[in-house]
Design a protein that fits this description.
By secondary structure, this protein is an alpha/beta fold. It is built from 31 helices and 14 strands. The longest helix is centred in the first third of the chain and has 19 residues.
């Protein structure tokens, strides 16, 4: 019986969309009726055999086509997408192309003969302006198609179990080893653009901030052409192409006769498949080589040979001829290749003064981080504001970030931050929507409004902003402004993680560890924690360290755990410092180092870890190991931890009040603290409370 849905996609093209679609379909149909390579093929299983077995029982084959689908790869008979589609047509399966990001249907001449039927299939266009909504609507249509072709089956759900990490008390029941890990989710705070680091290369910023540039002296952007646009330009039905947005004065493109508004469709006789394909093809050439561009102007296509130029020469000449964008790219060159950020700052300033928002943005980044200029956050704010006024949404977002947190020279003003986030959001600066939503969720600078926060997160997520997807998952998991639904939160976290938001990976790992919204799977939890940790999320390193420490889902490895805890600590995760301190303190699986343990406890406590404050308090209560006994300091630390809901610290503080150590003896306060800890589940506190009543 044909009752399955097969998802055919390329990972480098539409992985995030495929994951979202898979999650929505399994919600409706069950996991056993939806095939996707990531979740449906077990380790060691032959991929081709899986296709051969699954396609014949599939009622529908969904073909996801985005900007990097690349029909040219289908020429390889071993290409998996070709194998999947060939099998689908051989089995007469119903094939539905899904077009993302405005891409046109591939033309028959771009496909092998056996796949030509794809061009005759009615396609569904999925826009990114309301991505979640459009996928949800499409899934409902799929459900109706499947229901019409097969009898209903019971949805596969599996057992859902709540779980968590149980805190164990050592040192005569006084030292807290870990807190309960609950998948509450952590919000992402987004930047518009960030300073150049090894983890965030400049090339990524350049791509995100605007049009691409070529070493032929043009900037360009991809466009999907409306009927009106084509009619006004006298163009045939091209569907989409790459529009020249700027010509560098004196560049080879200008000398060859290109003008603003020209449409680029082919390079060296090959179709330009996506924005990266065009730039990558040009990068294969060296200065002095020629490329052949198919250029549409009006209803005519012309092949124009254009020489490749030396980048530095091109940018320098363009900047000298007054093109602000040339100055920006020359600044990139000096910052990245020339290692002269001071010269880059001067060039960014020149571009900004000429009205180029990108130049203002990049100069603000240098001032914020003290790169090539003296660090000056007030100056950074001023340049970000100029960028924002030039409709550079990244400038609005970064300016909002300075006002939200406050800094030397910038007075903290969350209300003003909200205005700049709103300005970015209104101009499709989606990180601005994410950050504005977070302010509404917290009631910071605006009236608290969780429902509006969820709407803003959804708006950003639908546009492909991964941080918005993560924050929407947090809202959905906890029921803040939307109905509580851990399974939908898992979908949002998965999309966020696939889109590069590392908090999404960490949060999804929490769900797999606790079994909330997904089947419990410690191996999957470890995998997602690892992704988050590699993305510099300290909390993810800490959670992965706990799994290695305890041998849960991974082979037990205390040394690996310690490395992860120390990495988390270096990433300013207090829980990582605390966990590393415990390993050093106990000295059972790593070499004991009490002094180092206490230093880590102190660092963690200062960072807000209630566990560490309690453990540090224990050291001061008893003294020894090179630490002077100081009950008063112990009491202050226990109070700090107790106020932060560490119940064992409430019990320890109660003990000090009972004995009059470091605080005046006070049986009533002692009983109250024992009662507080007991009501939270601390059985030892309950025993102390009963004993105090008996006395």
């Amino acid at each position: 019986m044909k009752d399955k849905v097969f998802i055919c996609y390329r990972r480098e093209d539409t992985a995030a969309f495929a994951v979202m679609l898979h999650e929505r379909l399994t919600e409706k149909l069950g996991t056993d009726r939806v095939f996707i390579d990531v979740d449906s093929i077990g380790p060691g299983i032959d991929f081709v055999d899986s296709i051969a077995k699954t396609i014949p029982v599939s009622a529908l084959v969904l073909v996801l086509i985005g900007r990097r689908w690349n029909p040219a790869r289908l020429a390889d008979p071993r290409d998996f997408v070709r194998l999947e589609l060939s099998a689908a047509f051989e089995q007469n399966a119903r094939v539905i192309p899904l077009l993302f990001e405005g891409v046109p249907m591939p033309r028959s001449e771009e496909l092998p003969a056996e796949l030509a039927p794809l061009t005759r299939r009615n396609a569904v266009e999925i826009g990114t302006s309301r991505l979640n909504g459009e996928i949800r609507d499409f899934v409902e249509d799929i459900e109706r198609m499947i229901a019409a072709s097969s009898p209903p089956r019971q949805k596969s759900t599996g057992d859902q179990k709540k779980g968590g990490r149980i805190g164990l008390a050592l040192f005569a029941g006084l030292l807290l080893i870990a807190v309960v890990a609950v998948a509450i989710g952590f919000l992402s705070r987004q930047r518009g653009n960030v300073a150049k680091t090894e983890e965030t290369p400049r090339a990524a910023e350049r791509q995100e901030s605007g049009p691409e540039t070529l070493r032929i002296g043009v900037t360009y952007r991809r466009r999907a052409f409306s009927e009106n646009f084509m009619r006004e330009r006298g163009l045939p039905d091209l569907g989409s192409g790459y529009e020249v947005t700027e010509i560098f004065p004196g560049g080879s493109a200008e000398r060859a006769g290109l003008v603003k508004g020209d449409i680029l469709r082919k390079i060296d006789g090959q179709p330009i498949l996506d924005i990266n394909d065009l730039s990558e093809q040009i990068k294969k050439h060296k200065a002095g080589d020629h490329i052949l561009l198919e250029v549409w102007r009006g209803a005519r296509a012309t092949d124009i040979p254009i020489p490749i130029e030396n980048e530095f020469t091109l940018y320098k000449r363009s900047c000298e001829n007054g093109l602000a964008e040339g100055c920006v790219f020359l600044g990139f060159f000096y910052q990245d290749e020339g290692k002269d950020p001071a010269r880059a700052a001067a060039l960014y300033r020149q571009a900004c003064e000429a009205g180029n928002g990108e130049g203002c943005l990049d100069l603000g980044i240098l001032y914020e981080h003290g790169t090539g200029v003296t660090k000056d956050l007030a100056q950074a704010a001023a340049w970000y504001e100029r960028a924002c006024n030039a409709r550079n949404t990244a400038g609005c977002v970064n300016l909002g970030g300075l006002f939200e947190l406050g800094a030397t020279g910038v007075r903290q003003d969350p209300s003003r931050a909200a205005l700049f986030y709103q300005q970015a959001c209104s101009n499709q600066g989606w990180p601005g929507c994410t950050n504005l939503g977070r302010l509404y969720a917290e009631g910071t600078g605006v009236a608290k409004d969780p429902a509006r926060a969820a709407l803003l997160y959804g708006q950003a997520c639908d546009a492909g902003e991964a941080g918005g997807c993560n924050n929407l998952g947090v809202a959905t998991y906890s029921g803040m402004g939307v109905d509580k639904d851990p399974s939908k939160a898992a979908v949002d976290y998965r999309v966020a993680c696939a889109g590069g938001d590392n908090y999404g990976c960490k949060n999804l790992g929490n769900l797999y560890e606790s079994g909330q919204g997904v089947q419990p799977d410690l191996k999957m939890a470890a995998d997602f924690y690892d992704k988050g940790c590699n993305g510099n999320i300290g909390l993810a390193c800490t959670d992965l360290g706990y799994l290695y420490r305890d041998g849960r889902g991974v082979e037990k490895d205390p040394s690996r755990a310690l490395t992860l805890f120390q990495r988390a600590c270096d990433l300013e995760s207090p829980d990582g410092c605390s966990a590393a301190g415990l390993l050093y303190f106990n000295g059972k699986e790593v070499s004991q180092d009490i002094a180092r343990a206490v230093a880590l406890f102190k660092r963690a406590c200062d960072g807000g870890s209630a566990v560490a404050c309690n453990n540090l308090g224990v050291q001061y209560e008893f003294g020894g190991n090179g630490i002077d006994k100081d009950p008063a300091r112990a009491a202050a630390l226990f109070r700090q931890a107790c106020d932060a809901k560490a119940l064992i610290a409430c019990r320890n503080l109660g003990s000090l009040y009972e004995k009059g150590l470091g605080v005046p003896r006070d049986p009533q306060k002692s009983a109250d603290l024992y009662r507080q800890a007991c009501s939270g589940g601390d059985s030892i506190a309950c025993t102390h409370l009963n004993e105090s009543k008996a006395r």
